Amino acid sequence: MSPRTARLARLSRSVTFSASHRLHSKALSEEENLKLFGKCNNPNGHGHNYKVIVTVRGEIDPVSGMVMNLTDLKEFMQKAIMEPLDHKNLDKDVPYFAEVVSTTENVAVFIWDSLQRLLPRGILYKVEVHETEQNVVVYKGEETIVK
User: Fold this and answer.
1) Closest by alpha carbon to 50, among 118, 140, 132, 115?
2) Which Pfam families match (predicted)?
């Protein structure tokens, strides 16, 4: 009998949440914010229906045939994405964004960090956040660049 070959796979699940925000940096003046963020700097904010695709990767379990139980992934996504973000004003309701500009890039980082605390170590592969059909951010937890 030959040794078993490990089969690796990626598993993705998506959710959609609605949230509002205002793109505004405390490090910039009102004029600089308006110039940089344009209409997205509206003092009253604006909203999106965000679509998030979470991808995990790992070995296909020879007994269950799964990388991860989808029911578990669904519950982790509920806790990490839906509970803190759905129908919220990101800047006012989510403490993380009190000091971090609520760009889609930073939303992806927030989701990554939240999922990392819940998922089995090393299984999270990618977080993809669709702010609109045209604007998508992909975050894979890469290290920061030292300048």
Assistant:
1) 132
2) PTPS
Q: What is the pLDDT of residue 147?
A: 67
What pLDDT sits at residue 32? 97
Of the candidate CATH numbers 1.20.140.10, 3.100.10.20, 3.30.479.10, 3.90.1170.30, the domain formed by 8-139 belongs to: 3.30.479.10
128 CB neighbour count, 10 Å cutoff: 18
Catalytic positions: 40, 87, 131
CB < 8 Å & 24+ apart, contacts of 75-78 = 76/115, 76/118, 76/119, 77/13, 77/15, 77/52, 77/115, 78/15
**DSSP class per residue in 97-130:** GGSS---HHHHHHHHHHHHHTTSPTT-EEEEEEE
What is the reported pTM?
Answer: 0.92
